[in-house]
Design brief:
The protein is mainly beta and 370 residues long. The chain has helices at residues 3-17, 141-144; strands at residues 31-35, 51-56, 62-66, 71-78, 84-91, 102-107, 113-117, 120-124, 133-140, 150-155, 161-165, 169-172, 177-180, 198-203, 209-213, 218-221, 226-229, 240-245, 251-255, 260-263, 268-271, 285-287, 293-296, 302-305, 310-313, 323-329, 335-340, 342-346, 360-363. The chain has one domain: YVTN repeat-like/Quinoprotein amine dehydrogenase (Methylamine Dehydrogenase, Chain H). It contains 2 helices and 29 strands.
Length: 370
Amino acid sequence: MTILNNHIILLLFSAVYINSCEGVDKVSHANKTIKESKVVLQPNLQIAEYIRHIFQDKNGSLWFGTNGYGAAHYEDSSNDSGGQEERVSYYSNAEGFGGQQITGISEDRQKNIWFATDQGVVKYDWSSNKEGEKQFINYSSQQYFSGQRFWSIFADSKGYIWAGGVTDIFRFDGFLWAPFELPYPEAEPGDFITNRTIWSITEDSKGNIWFSTNGHGAFKYDGQSFTQYSEEEGLTDNSVDHIMEDSKGNIWFGTRRGGVSRYDGMSFTNYTENDSIGNNEVCVIYEDKEGNIWFSSEGYGVYCYNGASFTNYSKNEGLGVRAVQDIFEDKEGRLWVGGGGGLYRYNASPKDLVGRNETFINVTKKGPWK
């Protein structure tokens, strides 16, 4: 089967399954250098049909994890004539990047970028890259992880890289990838999604590592022991899509069927479709620089919680993404939303744009980027 046929199958799967939170074949650990090029892959102007992840690197360039086109990279730089050149480049199998579906993006202490993909883990190493070129290190699923497909990745403050897969977690110490076991009650084999699937990994301000699972709630690892949080402790649902710590030290959980839980270290406060949001499927939670908590709600766009009330942004506000996969605020304070339907940017002052009243603006390959 050719790469093209695999890609078509992936898009068909995306249309059926990835309208919800988890929006999906092998490469070895090798350095491959390629020249940047502007590649037109889609028949329309959207960056991709699905934007799964959004990230800004140390140079201010934006990276987008797509659901079938690999990693998209937007760069705004001055050209020789003194003007500005804007372009979107794509990196996937054909360009030496080990993956077509990007399921996670994280940055390590050296500002290198790590990607979780459908084919393993990819590292973008700044120290081995030259201007105008991209060089990737691929850790293939078949060679390093016994064929494991990955759904999350995180670089912690101690220098470890954590990759969450279908049934297992792997930790990289800079030299070797090693399995890392959570205290699950029993083995659960599978090759795509199981109750042990790790949807997200994060680190809190105390250095604890948190893991969200597809059926066993959440686990906290303090470096020596584990604490499990489930419905028995007050968590709204045992299928947890996302975990985030806010600036006040609260831990937020976005779940598949139970809405949102907030844990203050003592007890849980839950926000559901019965009292706060439109749908209990919450894929992502994000805190902006003003302390507002943003989160997705399947079919209802996004909600912004200011500590007292919830504000919904959806189609009427210009947000064409109902199946939201990611929310991200860049260094310039611009809030981005991606998912099924493309990429959107929040415009806090719609009147500033002549002829536009939308709170959210669709950003395509041709912009508007600013």
